[in-house]
Specification:
By secondary structure, the chain is an alpha/beta fold. It has helices at about 20-30, 55-60, 85-90, 100-110, 110-120, 135-150, 170-185, 200-205, and strands at about 1-5, 5-10, 35-40, 60-65, 95-100, 120-125, 155-160, 190-195, 210-215, 220-224. The protein is built from eight helices and ten strands. The strands form two sheets. Strands 4-3-5-2-6-7-8-9 form an eight-stranded parallel sheet, sandwiched between helices. The chain has a two-stranded parallel sheet with strand order 1-10. The longest helix is centred in the C-terminal third of the chain and has 18 residues, at about 170-185.
Length: about 220
């Protein structure tokens, strides 16, 4: 279970599904809190960004912070000035979507001192063993070290989001649990949950510890 915190940071390598989880978490928070913001600081990958959900976020009353160039064919490695609202306004519940390598995590480093001083955050690694660069626990550990080495914010949890998109079967998810547990053992960071799409959740319920459905804005439940 993810503890109830003011700031949730999601990172992971390209294709891990971190943006889907970040957006769903923002919607889950909005059902409980009045002021929710989601910040897209993935300044490395211009192809799939939180900004893709801008209209839905706006309709739900969730504030989106992202580069004005996100979602275009212009990729400028710059952060918007209002990113600092996350650490300056303690009334906000914030979700941060971070780039998938050390260069992307450098952007998060600009908020590091304030985040660590407040100490009301979760820094979550989204792991997908079916992506080429995180196919083993050892490979994923290397990515974890790159990211935290750049941003200097310690990991607090691992989310196993191993999937093959719409082709994912229940067995694919079951086969990924051992790798996620190995990653947890190697890193010393707890495996806090395995996330699956709603269409296979019932098939896996009771077979995997801390299983959470991710569907159309299903969100991740946090533990108060």
């Amino acid at each position: 279970m993810i503890p109830d915190k003011r700031i949730y940071i999601f990172s992971g390598h390209y294709g891990s599904g971190k943006t889907n989880i970040a957006v769903d978490t923002a919607f889950a928070l909005r059902r409980r809190y009045q002021k929710v913001v989601i910040a897209d600081i993935d300044i490395v990958n211009p192809y799939f960004r939180t900004k893709d959900s801008r209209q839905e976020l706006q309709e739900a009353g969730i504030r989106l912070i992202s580069s004005r160039f996100a979602g275009t064919n212009v990729d400028v490695p710059a952060l918007p000035q209002d990113i600092y609202a996350i650490t300056c306004d303690a009334s906000l519940r914030a979700v941060i979507d971070v780039g998938g390598d050390d260069r992307g995590a450098l952007a998060l480093g600009r908020l590091r001192d304030s985040i660590l001083a407040e100490n009301d955050y979760e820094m979550l690694m989204v792991f997908n063993m079916y992506r080429p660069l995180t196919g083993t626990a050892g490979d994923a550990l290397g990515i974890m070290r790159e990211i935290t080495g750049a941003c200097k914010i310690p990991w607090t949890g691992i989310i196993n989001n191993s999937n093959l998109g719409i082709e994912t079967t229940a067995q694919d998810v079951l086969d990924s649990v051992a790798a996620a547990e190995t990653l947890s053992g190697l890193s010393g960071v707890p495996l806090v949950m395995t996330t699956v799409s709603n269409n296979i959740y019932n098939e896996l319920k009771g077979k995997i510890k801390d299983l959470r459905p991710l569907g159309i804005r299903g969100g991740i439940s946090s533990n108060r």
